[in-house]
Structures are given as C-alpha cells and as structure tokens.
Amino acid sequence: MAHIQIKDLTFAYPTNEDRLVLDHVSVDIPQGQYVTLCGKSGSGKSTLLNQLKTVLTPNGKRSGEILLDGVPLDQVDLRTQAALIGYVMQDPDSQIVTDKVWHELAFGLENLGFDQRTMRTRVAEMASYFGIQGWFHKDVDELSGGQKQLLNLASIMAMQPSVLILDEPTSQLDPIAASDFLNTVRKINLELGTTIIITEHRLEDIFHASDKVVVMEKGRVIVQDSPKAVGKYLKEQSSEMFAAMPAPVRIYYGVTKGKDADTEDLSKVPLTVREGRTWLSELFDGKKILPEKETKEQEPDTKETPAIKLKDVWFKYDRDLPDILKGTTVDVPKGKIFALVGGNGTGKSTTLKAICRIVKPYRGKLLIDGKKLDSYKSADLFRGKLAMLPQDPKSLFVKTIVREELEEMLGVKEAAKYEKAVELNGSENVPLDPKIERIAKECDILHLLTTHPFDLSGGEQQRTALAKVLLTEPEILLLDEPTKGIDNFFKLQFASILKRLTDNGVTILMVSHDVEFCARYADLVGMFFDGDIITTNTPDKFFGQNSFYTTAANRMSRHLFKNAITDEDVIRRCLENLNA
Amino acid sequence: MVSKQSEIKTMREIYKDEFSTYNPVTNIVFFLGAIILGMFFIHPVFVGVSIIVGVIYLFTLIKKRAFKELLLMLVMFIVLAAINPVFNRMGATVLFWLFGKPYTFEALIYGMTLGGMAVAILCWFACYNCIMTSDKFIYIFGRIIPSVSLILSMILRLIPNLSRKTKQISSARSCIGMAGSASSSRMEKIRNGTLVLSTLTSWALEGGIIMADSMRSRGYGTGKRTTFAKYRFDKRNWVLLIIMVILIGITIFCAVKGSTKAEYVPYFTMTWFGEFYMTLGIVCYGIFLLIPVLLTIKETIKWRIFRSKI
C-alpha cells in the first residue's frame, strides 16, 4: 500500500471556482521514496503540497481524497498530522518562531506536549545529527540563511515525521548552502527512510536522486515517472518544462536530436555531470577533436571612460572591525552587462552599496562617468544616472496596487493627480502615463496593474520592482542577486529585458551567485574574493579557466572542448565534430 | 551589519562567573534579595556594604568596562548628595549658609545615604543585566505563565527584525532617489516616513501569516503544551538557595529588631558595631551579597588545586 495516495484531487479557490488550480491530480507515493515535483510558477505545485497537510489547506472547492497510510487525511487528527507530516517552507526567516536555536529545536516538541526527558533526548539527537551543537545557544539572528534553513529542517525532524514536504527550500540560499541543504535532505531519505516530497527550481542537485519526478502544468500532472523517462517524455512533447531539465539531459537530447528515441535505451541518458562526461567520452572515443576557431580577441577600448570606475577602494564598518573591501579596483565599461560572482561575505554587495552611497569608503576613488561620486548631488545621481534594484524586490513596494507603485515615481503631485482620477473614474478609464505605459510594457506587467504587489509571484515582483527602478531612467543599473528565487522561465524573460536595456546603452553591474545565468548573459565576469576582484574576463574565458566555479555544461565537456560554457556551445561543438 | 551586531554582543559578554551557571530561579532570588533589601536599608553602613560588594561583583563580571559605568554612578552620587541639603533644610548642625538658607550636616549625610543607595541598586542592576540573559528571564516567566514565555521569545525576535527591515527599505528607496535628501522639507520627510512604515506593516503581516502557518504546521494549538527546560535544578542549587533564604531571614529579623535604625533629625545618630542585632545583621547581609563573589573565588581555588595536581 502506498504511503500517500492522492486520488483524483481537484481544487479551486472560492474567488474563482471555474479555474481549477488542481485538475484531477492522482499520485501514489510509496514509503521512503524521494519524489520531485516540478513545474512553472503557478502550475499548482505549492497548492498541491498545501493539500497534504490539513492546517495549511486553504479554503476552496475540493473533490477527491488524500490517503495517509490508507486513512483519509481529514480523519487524521491535527496533532498526529503535526508529528507525522513535516513541512519546510521557502523563506528561512519567517518560519522561525522563537529567538534562540535551542528553543526553536524544541518548539514542535513543546506543542506536542512531550515530557522533559523525551524533549532533551530528541533535541540533543537532532543537534548532533545536523551538526548544530556549535551554535546551539546562539540567537537565531546570528545565523546565516543556510544555517537557518538547516535549523528549520532539524526542528521538524525532531518530531520524527514519516513524510517530509519541502516547498522550494533552497530558493533563498546561495548555491553552496543550497547543495549542503539538499545533501542533508538526501541523507535523511537514505538513512532514516523518510519519504521526501520536494519542489525546486534548480533541478541539477535533486533530479538524479529522485525515485519519481512529477511534472505539473496548469494544475494537471502531465507526466510522473523515473527521471530518465520524464526527460524523454518532455523532449518528445517538446514541452516548455524541458528547459528546466539538468544540463546533461538537455545536451544529450540536443546532440542526439531525439533520433531513434523509441528504440533508444534509456539507461544511456546522463543525469549527472559524471555520467555526462562518460557519455561524451564514449561518443568521441578515438575521434580527433577539431580545434575551435579562434575568435578574435576583442581589445577593451581603453579610451572610453568607463561608466563605473573603482580604484583602490577600502571600506570597513568601524575602525576596530576588519576591512570588507580591500583595495577593490574595477572598470565597468559602458553599455555592457558586468557580473560580479564569488562566495558569501566577500564584499560583493558592499561594493554595490559603496557605489550607491549607502556606505562610504574611507580610502580610494569612485568615479561615475569619469566624475567623482561625491561631486554628484543626490537628486541628480538617482535621477537618470544611477539606480539599484535591491535583492528583495519587496523593499521597494509601498502602495496597495502596482499602478500606484509606478505612479509614485512620477513625483508627489502627478501621483496624487492620477490617484484622484482613478478614484473617480475607475482604473480602466484613466489612461496610463505614456512613460509608465512604455516601461510597464517592456517589463511585461501591464496585466498586473491592479494587483497588490505582495500578491504577485516572485518573478512578477521582480519585474514590477525593475519597472519602478527603470522609471528613474538610469544610465547605470545595479542589480543585487536578481535571479534569486526566480524560476527558469522568468529568468529568460528577465534576461531579455536586460538585453534590450543594454542595447539602448544602459550599463548593468550585477552581483550574482547564479553561475549559469552569468555565463549565458553577461558580457564580462569578475571574480570577487577577499575584498577584491581577482580576475575579470569574458564569460567563456572566465568559466573556461575555472574547474569548480563554472557551469555544469562546462564541467561535463571541459576534457574535450575548450571554453564551451553553455549548453548551446557544447551541443554546437558536438554536432560540428560529429558531422566532420 | 552582522559584524556590528556581534560587536554589541561582546559588550554584554561577561568573564568567567560561577554564579551564572546556577539555575535562573537561584539567580533571580539573589538579585531580588539584593535589590529589595538594598532599597529598604537606609543606613550608611548597610548602604556602604551594598555598594562595595556590588562594585566588586561588577568588576569580576566585566573587568575594565566597569570603570565607565562606575564613573557615571559616581557623578550621580555626588549630585544627589550635594543637592539634597539645598532643598532639605532639616538638621541642627549648620555647615554654611547658601542663598540665605542653612546647609546642614544631617541633610548632607542623608543625601549621601540616598545617593549611595541609588548607586548600589544601579550597580546590582548592572550585574543582573550580565547574569540574567533573555533565555533565563523567559525561563522564569515560563514557570509562572507558560504562554507569556513564548510571546516574549517571539517579541525578542521581532524587534531586531523590524529594525533591520526598516534600514533595508530606506536604503532601497534611497537608491532610486525616493528617500528625499537633506534639503527636503519636513512634509516630505513625514511622507517618506509613513510610506516606509506602511511597507513595514505589510511586510510584518505577511511574515506573520507565514509564521502562523509554521506554528500550526508544527502542532501549535493542538492540545496541551509543555515547556522545554534548558536549566536543571540540582542539589547545588538547593544548597545555595537554602543558604540564601537563611541569610535573608536573619538579616530581615535583625532589621525588625532595629539593626538598621538611623535617625537624621535633629541630630544624626545610627546603630553601630557592637550592638548585637546590628553586628549580626550586617554580617549576614554582607555574606549574602558576597555569595556570587565567594563562589567565583571558591571555583578559582579549586581549579588551581586541580591543575597543580596534574
């Protein structure tokens, strides 16, 4: 008997009963399986997960049933559910309840009324298993994002659940913390036999480990099967979801073009970088690899004044504290996308803050368009010259609907005029300001104008915040982790907006952990380490030289091709060589 | 910002202290005793003992950093002592005339006693602050009213969170030129402030919903709740608690018998060493206040011996 059985589940929100958020979903999950749920934003993944725990299920019209060990979920009392079904949410911060690590670990056990002895044992056990002893007595606020999410996981595991549900648990974490976290989840699955149901944007780390992958689209399950079979199915259907598959799968099908897909042995499909390397090596066994045609080295134009120039910039928060920026030097050329990559706490974000005058360096030069940063007046600098999109787009939202949010940027008088007009005539009857209309169209948020900004999905919030920033018509745009928590489709859309901006001469400096995104869209990439930029190069050279800090496609093919960093590069080189 | 916070953290850090390893209940009984008794004994000798022991204890806790706090207390003491005779003209021994009013010896002594008492209590509060961390405070509350302890714990997390978010919002707005500048009018500043506040509210509400979900999904409100006790009440706590109660008992008994009697008008008189109850009272009071310091000394000696044996 399956551990969890979802039988013909249909769900619609009371506000819109015709639109089925879940459309006849049936999934069987045996005990101890690792199940990955994927789909675009808004495909119903989170809604499905919320149905698996009664306290989280929203109101709405519902049919079908969910069985937990053969018993309908509604009949399992809440206390038992709390213990049996663990649920880890997206935001590491908001789901923490108490102020101390030890208290958070004990919180669930307190709620379930365990006695002191059991609580002590469980808490001690979890702290040891997750390696938390070192920060057991700390304040929660002293922890990093990765530690916080690990704490959330540990405090749920202390209740000894038999199912663990994770709703995009790593979307707010940097890649290293994310893969640490996912490894721990994997370890729990392997060592404790806990059933795992997980949704993720980044499938690279979990796809190969899954026993079953469930793909959703518009509230329906379009396919549920083993990872390899799912890859094949999505390719055959040329589904949009194929773009979310891990790089080895995409490259495999890109090269074989799905030829003889039916007769093909599924076991050959590579899921990990290691399998991908082996497969490529076999494919080109004994063949000579054609050397890549040398592209002409583009000499950077040294005459043109860079949009942003930092020379030997030093910064620390206080005299007695360690330096954060240690002689940072960089030139950001006009009209390019410049990406800064590097680990946490190396000073990337601080560099952006220094350029925005949030922090003030104590030594060194900072030039914007060849003019000293200090010589700009705030009113001039942040109007038409420089603007920053913050890491959390919500920090920019102060109004109740998106339209007001954008009109706020026109100035107090204009905004009040529009607000009055909308109040009198209704939103549809008041034409938008031409500038707003143009930018809203460019950011693809015209259909969202009457929504509350907090009700938007992550990608939509990002674009709304971007529109707000663009209304200052900046020549230089600073982006802080722009792809954090955004799925692949929104990333594509976001990238094309950035491309259009640079075509119009806007300079973009972004700080990012997203190696794949930087490899594909940046013009220049700089590596930040220990308060300074170590190397700067074009993405292909930059990532081509790295062996660890690079894209999956590059790691998979670097023993054969030089400087092939994106999937397209690898596929193109494979085909050139195969057809030669 | 993180490093800033850790900086503040070190300000509260204390040196090796034995008393802080005792159960919070033992801790709070001691501090309640020291502070409440200190407020009732308006007798120069008792006040003096309280100040001296309090200062010694504060020194063992925070060493050099105590100088700064003591300097402030000294200023306060001098001001209180000197000002009292200006308003209080009781007493028979006139020292000099100020603005045509007598400045008396008795009023000065009384002022010094009161000022000393204030300093002693501040000193004990400073020690209390070092020993009674939020964990311990919440633990004690939890024993009295369990639900309050959880709320306190949540509030303690909420406040720094909100202040961090405020900073984040205002810097985000300043980077798109919406934060106003130094030259902007008061009206504009108020408008900006309200906007930041409104964002903060939606943010807090949204976070609240997620937190409520997180609480319910971990079984909050599904039935009887217990409280995880980080601290145990073992034998050494019982021993110390009994000693403390006995000492407090004797001190109070002596006080009732008149050990702390001091008269300020018309002439200054007070009980002095040699009177049975006074001597017994002050000795018990002194030993009681010295308990934390004695514990630290005992532990230091113990470890010296341990080490020399190795």
Question: What's the total count of β strands of chain B?
Answer: 4
Strand order of the largest sheet of chain A: 6-7-8-3-9-10
Structural class of chain A: alpha/beta
Average pLDDT metric of chain A? 88
**Biggest protein-protein interface?**
A-B, 76 and 59 residues
Estimated share of beta-strand residues of chain B: under 5%
Number of strands of chain A: 20
Textual characterization of the structure:
The complex is a heterodimer of chains A (580) and B (310). Chain A has 580 residues and is of the alpha/beta class. Chain A has four domains: 4-241, P-loop containing nucleotide triphosphate hydrolases (Rossmann fold), CATH 3.40.50; 246-298 and 543-580, no CATH class; 304-385 and 474-537, 3-Layer(aba) Sandwich (Rossmann fold), CATH 3.40.50; 395-472, no CATH class. Chain A has helices at residues 45-51, 78-84, 101-111, 116-129, 145-157, 175-192, 227-236, 247-256, 273-283, 348-355, 378-381, 402-407, 412-425, 434-442, 458-470, 488-503, 515-521, 539-545, 552-557, 567-579; strands spanning 4-12, 22-29, 34-38, 61-68, 71-72, 85-88, 163-167, 195-199, 212-217, 220-225, 308-315, 325-332, 337-341, 363-368, 371-372, 386-389, 476-480, 507-511, 524-529, 532-537. In chain A, the strands form four sheets. Chain A has a six-stranded mixed sheet, with helices on both faces. Chain A has a six-stranded mixed sheet with strand order 16-17-18-13-19-20, sandwiched between helices. The longest helix of chain A is centred in the first third of the chain and has 18 residues, at 175-192. Chain B folds into two domains: 14-133 and 235-309, no CATH class; 138-217, no CATH class. Helix content of chain B is 72%, strand content 4%. Chain B has ten helices and four strands, in the order H-H-H-H-E-E-H-H-H-H-H-E-E-H. In chain B, helix 9 packs antiparallel against helix 10. Chain B is extended, with a radius of gyration of 26 Å. The interface between A and B is large, with 76 and 59 residues.
